[in-house]
Amino acid sequence: MNTKKIMLAANDTTFVYNLRKEIIESLIEKEYDVYIVAQETNFIEEIEYIDCNLINLQIPRHGTNPIADLNLYKQINNILKEIRPDIVFSNSIKPNIYFGMACKKHNIPFIPNITGLGGALLNPGKVQKIASNLYKLGIKDADLVFFQNESNKNFFFDKNIINKSKDYFILPGSGINLNENVYREYPLEKNNVKFIMIARIMKDKGIREFLQVAENIKSKYTNVEFNLVGDYDDLIYKELIENLVNKNIINYLGFRKDINDLISESHCLIHPSYHEGLSNVLLEAAAAGRPVIASDIPGCKETFINQVSGLSIKPKDSNDLMEKVELFINIPYEDKVQMGIENRKYIENKFDRKFVVRKYLECIEKYAK
Q1: What φ, ψ does residue 294 adopt, rounded to 5°?
Q2: Measured between alpha carbons, how far is 32 from 51 in angstroms, rounded to an integer?
Q3: Tens digit of pLDDT for each residue in 152-202?
Q4: Burial of 222 by CB count in 10 Å (0-12 exposed, 13-18 middle, 19+ buried)?
Q5: Which domains occur in the chain, in start order?
Q6: Which of 45, 135, 271, 340, CA to CA, is 20 to 30 A from 302?
Q7: Burial of 171: CB neighbours in 10 Å, binned 0-12, 13-18, 19+
Q8: pLDDT value, residue 342
């Protein structure tokens, strides 16, 4: 049996199962001893069924409370001291920062994955300065840094968060499992044109723009349906969403595991995000053969071809989103079907998750002790 211990750290088990399952399965197949460190949210039984070790760690996604972050760092230190992994892979801001610091202390090979910048890094000010300095400490001694788009890489270099001589590699996001995410026949438009948004409910995903557009469109069209899927990341929107549900303007479906089915029942996915590493939900929509309306930003625009397989929108611009939603409603049905077919073709050649799995395995062979 291979005695190497491989640790994957992330914010939560939902992320781990949806985006790292194939990596974990490949590691288990090669008889590595796999440890997952994440907050237990969803898919816990599914992860344990893969036969890996799951360690529950409460990782606050937002906030800069120094006492909470110091406590998180201490917990990570204790985990690494007990497990002594041969290499650690991490994702998202806080795991990247604090696992990086702890791995340096314990002399453990470390590879962070920059899955997006987040508001803390993008918005100039005190918080950006704190986040940049922490990130610099966290990934300074990383053996390799994964990025998910060229723009994020340039940001880290331009802000001197990492040295330009640092080894890095740009992944095609988390990729998409093309065997599990198959093309689905485009639904008929018997009664409604169905739009769906799948995201954590928070400002930076463009939730306010989506809700505003849904309300405006429903006042003009009776043959349109808006579905919203995802957990609340910010409860400030709860009352507004409940109000729109009561008015039959949107359907709020909460957290769901049957994402593929929900996408396949839809005619178009809306993703008005402000920033992304590389959007996984856009890959899922493309794999199913669905057109998208998505922000013209790094992390989104790479996943579709504007006016061929989707429609680009300006971020933070509800008027532009309104215009593109109305445009899509009036596109002939056969053209919508063709847009979906083109979207599937596009991602098949660029975003196969097998490539990401191979890269992780290569890194273990090269960097693990």
Answers
A1: -145, 160
A2: 11
A3: 999 999 888 998 888 999 999 999 999 999 999 999 988 799 999 999 999
A4: exposed
A5: 5-175+352-367 (3.40.50.2000), 193-348 (3.40.50.2000)
A6: 135
A7: buried
A8: 97
- Cα gap 21→359, rounded to integer Å: 15
- In tens, the pLDDT along 250-306 reads 999 999 999 999 999 999 999 999 999 899 999 999 999 999 999 999 999 999 999
Query: By 3-state DSSP, what share of the chain in percent is helix, strand and coil, each rounded to 5?
Result: 45, 20, 35
**Average pLDDT across the chain, whole number:** 93
Q: What gap in Å lies between CA 50 and CA 62, rounded to an integer?
A: 30
Alpha helices in 124-226 (DSSP H): 126-139, 150-158, 207-218
Q: Which helix (H) or strand (E) holds 6?
A: strand 5-12
- The per-residue pLDDT for 2 is 60
**Dihedral of the alpha carbons of 252, 118, 323, 248, in degrees to the nearest 10:** 10
Largest CA distance in the chain: 64
Buried b (16+ CB within 10 A) or exposed e, 284-323: bbbbbbbbbbbbebbbbbbbbeeeebbbbbbbebbebbbe
**Span 11-37, mean pLDDT?**
95
Separation in Å, CA 93 to CA 100, 170, 188, 329, 355:
11, 17, 42, 38, 24
Q: List the one residue out of 290, 320, 301 whose CA is nearest residue 193.
A: 290
Which of 316, 348, 42, 366 shows the shortest CA–CA distance to 175?
A: 348
- For the stretch 10-33, what's the b/e string if a residue is b when 16 or more beta carbons lie within 10 angstroms of its beta carbon? bbbbbbbbbbbbbbbebbeeeebb
Helix 333-348 to helix 280-288 angle (10° resolution) is: 120
Q: Residue 357: which H helix or E strand, with range?
A: helix 353-367
